[in-house]
Structure formats: C-alpha cells, structure tokens
Write a structure and sequence with these properties.
The protein is 40% helix and 20% strand. The radius of gyration is 28 Å and the shape is globular. Helix 5 crosses helix 7. The relative contact order is 0.07. Helix 13 links the parallel strand 17 and strand 18. The chain has 4 domains: 181 residues, ATP-grasp fold, A domain (Dna Ligase, domain 1); 125 residues, 2-Layer Sandwich (D-amino Acid Aminotransferase, Chain A, domain 1); 112 residues, Phosphohistidine domain (Glucose Oxidase, domain 1); 292 residues, Phosphoenolpyruvate-binding domains (TIM Barrel, Alpha-Beta Barrel), CATH 3.20.20. The longest helix is centred in the C-terminal third of the chain and has 23 residues. The termini are far apart. The protein has 30 helices and 29 strands. By secondary structure, the chain is α/β, with parallel strands linked by helices. The chain binds phosphoenolpyruvate and magnesium ion. Magnesium ion (MG) binds next to helix 27.
C-alpha cells in the first residue's frame, strides 16, 4: 500500500503512517477540524529503497563511527544523496500524483500542500532527540510534491538522527518513515496549545499565538501572545500580548513561505479574541479527553476558521513520583547545583587539555575546573562536574548558557569518578548518583530544556547575560529585552593566544577581527535591542596558561589584583585594541552596542578610560557608556561617578558580595558565608539605585543574584530600571517582575482610594 487517506487511519497504524499521521487520523475521528490529506506510507519508502536497490548501499554507508563527526557527516551526505538522486519507481510516483490530484479535486482546485515527515514507531522514542525530520510548506504541483516527499525520506538520515539511533540501539534497517501530504492552511494566525500546563500538569490550557504560520511560535523565534484558560472555572486567567517581531507568510508572488517583519500596528495587538481563546480551549479539551493525556497541539486560523494541525503528548510534565533518588542507586558526590536539569552518561575525566577529544556526545565531562578551551567539549557533553568553583565559576556560567546540567565544587569528582562509569547528575540539587536514570519523561526534559516562548510586558526591563557567542540564539529566544552583560574575556581566553603575543607578532588586526566576530554574533541576534559589552575582566592566573602568557605577574590574590579596568588602564595598548573593536562595530552599524567598564573603584578610572576612548575616535555622545558597581568604594561614592558622566550602572553582585563580605567567591571553604542578599550588600545597592534615580541614570544588575526571583522582587521595589538574568532564569525573573509591578500599582491604587 503506497497511499492511505488520513480519515482511514488511527493510532493502531503508526507503523504505516507514523505518529503524526496516526494522530491526525484520530483527530479526524473526533470530527475535529483537521485539513484533509493522505499519507505516503512507510512501506512506500521501503519499496523505494528496495526496488531501486539502494537499500544496501544506504545501510553500508551508515556503518561509521558515529562519535567521529567527519565520518558522521559523510554518512549523512552519502545516504541523503542516494535518496535524492535516485529516480522514484513509476508505480510509487503515479500513486502519489493520483492522490495529490484527488486532494485537489476535493478542495476544488490545485492546492498548496504541507508535506511533513512522520516518524514511525521504531523511531518515535528518539524523534525528539533526533531533532525531527524535515517538513516543507506551501508545496504546489505534482512534481514539487514528489520532490518534497523524497526530501522528507532523505531527512531520515540526518546526522543527529543517525547518531541517536545508534546510541539508542535501533537498527537503521528497521526504521522507516511515512510522509503526510495535507492541504496547507495559509494561516492568518497560528500557534500552539498545551491542553494542560506543560510543567505542572494542572488543568490550565496554555495558548501561544502569532500572526501568520505557526512555525515562529513552534521554533520559539518570536515572543508570542500568551493566553491561559483555567479549565475548572472556564475563565481566561492570563492574557499577555507578546512583541511578535516577525511572522512567516505565503508570498503572494512566488507562493513560497517568507519571513517578514510584523507591521508595527499588528505587533502590539492581540492575535486572538476571547471567544477564539475559549473555542480553542474547547477543542483542546476534546483532544485531551480523546487521548486521556495532556496534548501539545499545533493550530491555525484561516478566515476565522480554526484548524488543528498536529497533536502529541506533552513530555515536559514533572512527575513527582519520578524523583531520581527513587530510581537510581547511590549518591556518590555532592556539590553545588550550578545548571539545572538531569543528565545521565558515561564519565570522561579530563585532567589535561589534550584529553578533551575523548569526550563524546552524551558523555559526562569531569574535571577540576573548566577553561575557555574546553567549550567545544562542553558542548558535546550531556553533563558537567567539577571539583572546584562556585555558582559564578567558568563551568557554572558556560553550562547554564549551553543548557547543560552541571554540578560544581564537588571537591573530589576527579578522584571518585573513573572513566566509563555510568552516572546521573542532578543540576538542581547538586547531586551525582551512580547508575543511569532512564525515565523518558525526565530524560527528554533534561535533553531539550524547553525554550521559553512567553513574554510578559514589564516596565522594568528583563535582560539576559551572555559569556559565549554560541549561546546568542538560545539567549535571544528567551525574548529578553537586551543583553545586560556580554563578557568578552571568554572570547579572549578562548583564542588561547595571549593578546600581547598577537601584538608582538604584528597580528593586532587579526585579534580585533576575532573580537568583532564574537560580539557581532550577539549584537546581531538582539539587534536593535541594547547589548552592553563589558571590557576585559579576567584575573592574571587565567591569562598565564595561554600561549605567550608566561610574563603574566604572579599574584597572591588575583581576585584583588590586576584585573578589570585597572588592567586596561595599565596596558593601554591592549585597551586600545578593545576600543578599536567597538569602533569597527559602530562603523558596521551596531548602534545597539553599549560599553561597560568593570571593577572601577575611583572616578579617575572612568575619566581616564573616557580620554582613551576619545583618542581612539569613539564618539561618546552617541555611545551608551556605563560602569559596573562591584566594589563598595564605587557604591559609596556613586554620586561622584555620576558627576563624571555615565549613562548606566550595573551591579556586579558576584564581586560586590565578595568585596563587601571579604569572602572569596571561588573558595568553597567560605562558601557558606557568601550571601548576595546580606544586609550590607543590599544597603549599598539601595543607595546606588536611589542616587541613580535622582540623577536619571539607568541602574541594572548583571551578577548571579539577578537570576533569583526573590532578589528581583526586592530590586523592583527599590526602583531598578533593568535586571539581567541567566538564560534559564529569564522567564521566572520576568514573572516575578511582572507580579511585583502589578502589586505595587495595586497597593498605590488602594492607598489613593
Ligand atoms: C559580577 O561580578 O557580578 C559580574 C557579573 O562579573 P563577573 O562574574 O564576570 O566577575
Ligand atoms: Mg565581576
């Protein structure tokens, strides 16, 4: 059987039409509004590769070491090319064309179709890991349909899919793929709907919506509207208008899907009327009742008619009874939970940099402390454990940005853990367990840290911190109002060649170009939202291990040593290279880039830095310039800094806390004394905010404390103008900011009654 119509299939047919096809058939049975269409069966795919005799060649090409990324890429290319370049047998092609003709007849004219891959049962469990196979929208005409079907087939052999299938123990020979061809809904509005709350499972329908096709919401590339309906009371309990920057629509001239700016008057308008929200809620309840489980539904509206495009079970609900301690064996180690999530994998202990290659995709990287050279291996790792460090060490910052669970400061992980051991780490609790924690629900949750697509509008801006440019897209998908801190030392240390060596070798231009590239990636992802880039701030001990770093001074206490603005003012030659980087970015049009100076303690430092900026040709009237408040000195005489002239200040609470309390932030022996909300720290912060508000200077926070909702509440109450949080904390901080602002308004209103 080559073709089967969607109305003829149901959940028993997954092996024939895949998960997507089966679920569409089920929804049709419930008479839900599903666009008509047919499935090219998984068996058709099998016929294709068998009849054309490419099956053996494909499977032979997939016999590679999947841990070797070169071999993996080659396998993907060979397998995909075999499918794309082999002519489809006439019998299959004829049936697809006939079915498309029939679909056109049913719709009363040649239709645009959505052609989507539908993973079959064998492949279903790992489909979410494999990144889903391809889909093609707005496909019209028989030849184009046949082509799109072949491309969907080819996507069965994407590199990630091959990798995960091998890791999960699936045989490529047993995995087939079905393709769904459906009348395309040229949506005016579309989005997703969770029929119950996606984390808690409560009976709250969560709907996210944007103009145009739903792809922008599914991919999390916009801040959509968000509507929440309490199914118990049948009332809309949340109604937030997102900023909805872009939309995907069908180009009227070419018929192709295009990405375009949402016109300003539409961006601020609600996508859905209340009656439409309630209608979607009703349809959602029907789907959930049918499956007897919360569903994640894609929907679309064309000319006021609602369509259901897809439904799959929600995989992110936290099940209390599935706590890891009950499943796995023994707590091996404890440390600080530095990046949330749970991950299981094989231990790879890295003591020297030349051992990094042994860390494969999905392993747990164990080391005394990570360094910027380790970022590629950290990207491959499923989890990270270190002996040293606190919540603001390199490992903690980078793993949070990568969305990789991490436990730091375990003291003895490199002793206790041995290569090849299978362990599980809990990045919330800071625990390391023996054994694998293999509950699918939690595994998927850890592997696919759900990207936040909600956007509450707050007066206090909620921004995001970034340290590695690889995190720019993840950070921007949070819908943050800008970047409150871009650390450039991770980029510089990652070059692994000391800046002075670049200068000595006459390669300053190359150095500047590298910095421009790194910053530009972030400035692009956020443009035109502001990106505050901080000038170099790394302690001397981190520079010493770089090629050419032998001359770095040896300091007793690098944290109190030659770092931040004092280093730049002592090594003006290098400071000027940083400033030339900024000049180049402004020439390229990145007017959204601001400059932030770290670790200032006297207004003279600000004055001197400005003089050098002017020497390099920066126009200070056009640049947002600010300082970090990280020393009690700068907080206590903030009025004198304001007098000197600046646009903003940002609390670096990681340092402000260590300098106020005399507690080394990286010393686990005194970690118990480290308290960012110590009354003395809060008193300094309050004083600075007050002075800034008096002078009309913006105030912000970019230290780790800004990621705590409790701290966010206090800062909003104190009147801070923005809060910059880690990627994973943007959403919870935004919620707290919104709630606090509303409460303040309410209290004021009550008082005035
Ligand atoms: C801080 O000190 O709070 C800060 C954000 O800077 P860093 O952590 O890079 O020292
Ligand atoms: Mg600091």
């Amino acid at each position: 059987m080559i073709i089967v119509w969607l109305e003829e299939v149901g959940s028993k047919d997954i092996a024939v039409v895949g998960g997507k096809g089966a679920s569409l058939g089920e929804m049709m049975k419930e008479e839900l509004p599903v666009p008509g269409g047919f499935a090219v069966t998984a068996q058709a795919f099998r016929h294709f590769i068998d009849d054309t005799k490419i099956a053996d060649k494909i499977f032979e090409s997939l016999k590679v070491d999947v841990n070797n990324s070169e071999e993996l890429k080659k396998a993907e290319k060979t397998a995909k090319n075999l499918i794309i370049e082999t002519k489809m047998p006439q019998k299959i092609e004829k049936e697809i064309l006939a079915a498309y003709d029939e679909l056109c007849k049913r719709e009363g004219g040649e239709v645009f179709a959505a052609v989507r891959s539908s993973a079959t049962a064998e492949d279903l469990p790992d489909a979410s890991f494999a990144g889903q196979q391809d889909s093609f929208l707005n496909v019209k005409g028989g030849e184009a349909i046949v082509n799109a079907v072949k491309r969907c087939w080819a996507s069965l052999y994407g590199a990630r899919a091959i990798f995960y299938r091998v890791k999960q123990g699936f045989k490529h020979e047993q995995v087939n793929i079905s393709v769904i061809v459906q009348t395309m809904v040229d949506a005016d509005r579309a989005g997703i709907m969770f029929t119950s709350h996606p984390m808690s499972g409560e009976p709250l329908t969560v709907i996210e919506a944007n103009w145009g096709l739903g792809e922008t919401v599914v991919a999390g590339s916009v801040s959509p509207d968000r509507y929440v309906v309490d199914r118990r009371t049948k009332r809309i309990v949340q109604h937030d208008i997102g900023s909805k920057e872009i939309m995907h629509i069908r180009d009227t001239k070419t018929g192709k899907t295009i990405k375009t700016q949402v016109p300003a008057d539409m961006a601020g308008k609600a996508v859905l009327r209340d009656d439409e929200v309630m209608k979607l809620n009703e349809l959602g309840e029907l789907v959930e009742t049918h499956y007897d489980y919360p569903q994640d539904v894609e929907w679309a509206i064309k000319d006021d008619k609602i369509y259901m495009l897809q439904s799959r079970p929600v995989t992110t609900i936290q099940k209390k009874e599935e706590e890891p301690e009950k499943v796995i064996e023994e707590v091996l180690l404890e440390g600080l939970g530095a990046s949330p999530g749970i991950a299981s994998g094989k231990v790879k202990v890295v003591m020297k940099l030349d051992e990094l290659d042994k860390v494969n995709e999905g392993d747990i990287l164990v080391t005394s402390m990570t360094t910027p050279d380790m970022v590629p291996a950290m990207e491959r790792a499923a989890g990270i454990i270190t002996d040293e460090g606190g919540l603001t060490c390199h490992a903690a910052i980078v793993s949070r940005e990568l969305g990789t669970p991490a436990v730091v400061g375990t003291k003895e992980s490199t002793n206790v853990l041995k290569d090849g051991m299978v362990i599980t780490i809990d990045g919330d609790k800071g625990h390391v367990y023996e054994g694998r924690f293999d509950r699918t629900v939690q595994d998927e949750q850890a592997a696919t840290t759900p990207m936040v697509t909600t956007k509450q509008v707050t007066v206090t801006e909620v921004k995001v911190n970034i340290s590695i440019s690889e995190a720019a897209q993840r950070a921007s998908a949070t819908g943050a109002d800008g970047v409150g801190l871009l650390r450039i030392e991770h980029m510089i240390l990652g070059l692994n060649k000391h800046p002075q060596l670049y200068i000595k070798e006459g390669k300053s231009e190359e150095y500047v170009a590298q910095l421009v590239k790194g910053i530009q990636t972030v400035a692009d992802a956020f443009y035109p939202k502001p990106v505050w880039v901080r000038t170099l701030d790394a302690p001397t001990d981190e520079f010493r291990s770089m090629q050419g770093g032998e001359d770095e001074p040896k300091e007793h206490n690098p944290m109190l040593g030659w770092r931040g603005i004092r280093r730049d003012l002592g090594d003006v030659e290098h400071f000027k290279l940083e400033l030339r980087t900024f000049r180049k970015l402004y020439e390229l049009g990145y007017s959204n880039v601001g400059i932030m100076l770290p670790l200032v303690q006297h207004p003279m430092e600000l004055r001197r830095a400005k003089e050098i900026m002017i020497e390099v040709g920066l126009n200070l009237d056009k640049i947002e310039l600010g300082i970090m408040v990280e020393t009690p000195a700068s907080a206590l005489i903030i009025d004198q800094f304001i007098e000197e002239g600046l646009d903003f200040v940002s609390f670096g609470t990681n340092d402000l806390t260590q300098y106020t309390l005399a507690v080394d932030r990286n010393n686990e022996n005194v970690a118990y004394l480290y308290d960012e909300q110590h009354p003395a720290v809060l008193k300094l912060i309050e004083h600075v905010i007050l002075e800034c508000n008096r002078a009309g200077v913006k105030s912000s926070i970019c230290g780790q404390a800004g990621s705590s909702p409790e701290m966010a509440r206090k800062l909003v109450e104190l009147g801070i103008t923005s809060i910059s949080a880690n990627i994973d904390a943007v959403e919870s901080v935004r919620e707290m900011v919104a709630r606090t602002e509303k409460r303040i308004l309410l209290e004021a209103a009550r008082k005035s009654l």
